[in-house]
Amino acid sequence: MRLARFLPIIFAAMPTSLLFAADLTVLATITPYKAAGPMAGLIVDSEGNLFGTATMGGESTLGKVFQIDALTHQLSTHVTFDGTNGTYPSGLTMDSGGNLYGTSYGGQYGRGMVFKVDAVSHELSTYYSFTTADGIRPMEGQDSLSIDSAGNLYGSYEGGGQYGHGAIYEIDATTKQLNVLYSFTDGTDGQRPHGSLYVDTAGNIYGASGGGVPYGFGTVFIITGDTHQFSTLATFVPTSGIGALPNGGLVQDAAGNLYGTTNEGGYFGDGTIFKIAKDTNELTTLYSLGGSSDGANPIAGLIMDAAGNLYGTTLFGGSANNGTAFRLTAGTNELTTLHSFTGGEDGATLYAGLTADAAGNLYGATNGGFASVYGTVFELTNTGFVVVPEANSLALVAVATVGVLGLRSRMRRLSNRQA
What we know:
Elements: E1 2-4, E2 9-11, E3 17-19, E4 23-29, E5 43-44, E6 50-54, E7 64-68, E8 75-80, E9 93-94, E10 100-104, E11 113-117, E12 124-129, E13 146-147, E14 153-157, E15 167-171, E16 178-183, E17 191-199, E18 205-210, E19 219-223, E20 230-235, E21 243-244, E22 251-252, E23 258-262, E24 264-265, E25 272-276, E26 283-288, E27 303-304, E28 310-314, E29 324-328, E30 335-340, E31 355-356, E32 362-365, E33 376-381, H1 404-418
């Protein structure tokens, strides 16, 4: 059963932005042989090692799964995709045992697959091969599967489904079977879902789609965890100050409010940061990006610290129009540019969002750079990211590129290690 709700929209004042130079360290420079074009966010394990994917590049030019060592910052390859084991991987998610999961093209039936990289052996195996009957194909390069506390995986596909307009699916951890939870109709529900899904503690699934009758600027939806009922929570409208095209995943605060980004729209047309209220589903524009100083056209979702501050990246904009990393302060909605990428040694063009470790350091990846550089992996410190020592409190932090429950288990381990 599908329910559509058209709810009030609240316009926020146009807050100011600040330039605050956080400390950026380039941990790895990506060259064509090592990899090419990191697009998805990174995963941090209990030892502080970083894991990511390159959609292309590597020895076979078909993508790879890589690790950056926490101590040496040495980049090493776990998996090289060569066509026989898949091609062009999406982003990663991690289970409580440290195993990595993602999607790629290829698979037994040529429709794509979900792969697993073992935490100990680093060997790749096919977890599930998509079939023609599934109507599902791999996720886009910047998107990742989400995982719940039982190990069930959740993903989206921009095409396919019963009506050909996209679908949301689950892969059961016990049976390894795929279940299509919802197929989009290109009505008030939207079409072509994109961005990683967010799974809350009750098993509710939140995401964003393109299209949506009557305006076609995108929607935010929920699929309930118990009955799998689909509802449209918010519809983006062609009104001044409201965003359009929510591409990244969502993040949820302790009160149940949702936050995300749009790639376009807002007062200046360069995208927005928005909030959807828990009880009323009111859509509020918290900040309209302006391009030159504070960034433009975010693709990725947001992360939230223990104080409710939001952190994210933009694809373009900033002082050199090569993208930015930013913080939006809770309460004041004041945006601070943490780093404006130059297109030099620090890289350029951020499809990926940020990831936080237990010490409050932030990590991300760029998709380009100078000369023969095909991207960078970087660390940001002195960002103001608020952490608390208690492991349970760190559950407030959520990364839009992975399932929140999987992140919680990792953050608990990180906190125990720090203590």
